[in-house]
Amino acid sequence: MRGTLAWAADTLKLDIERAEGIRGTANGTLAWSRAAGVQATAQFAGIDAATLHSRAVATSASGQLAYSFRDGEQRFRGSARNDADCH
After folding, report:
1. Which residue of 16, 29, 68, 74 lies most exposed, with the fewest beta carbons within 10 A?
2. pLDDT of residue 30
């Protein structure tokens, strides 16, 4: 994993430039501040669910996810697809 972390009394920012697994890669950001709450994004490609859980089938998942939490309200936005040959 490669990235940076910065913080102060009322802010925190984590940037993950690249995270690699057995199969697949991801990157993303997470930011928190008292004023803006939590904002997070993630992009992933080639993720094989079978490497994450023993009962999962083989996949090649790609997509993105955005999350925010502010003033007690959570929002998720994203999309994903499986490019694995399922035959």
Report:
1. 74
2. 97
DSSP state of 58: P
Question: Do the domain assignments include residue 87?
Answer: no
First to last CA, the chain: 33
pLDDT for position 86: 56
Distance of CA 80 to the CA centre of its chain: 12
Say what the pTM is: 0.80
Q: What is the C-alpha to C-alpha distance for residues 82 and 58, in angstroms, rounded to an integer?
A: 10
User: Is 84 within the bounds of a domain?
Assistant: no
SS3 per-residue string spanning the chain: CEEEEEEECCEEEEEEEEEECCCCEEEEEEEEECCCEEEEEEEEEEECHHHCCCCCCCCCEEEEEEEEEECCEEEEEEEEEECCCCC
Position 48 scores a pLDDT of 93
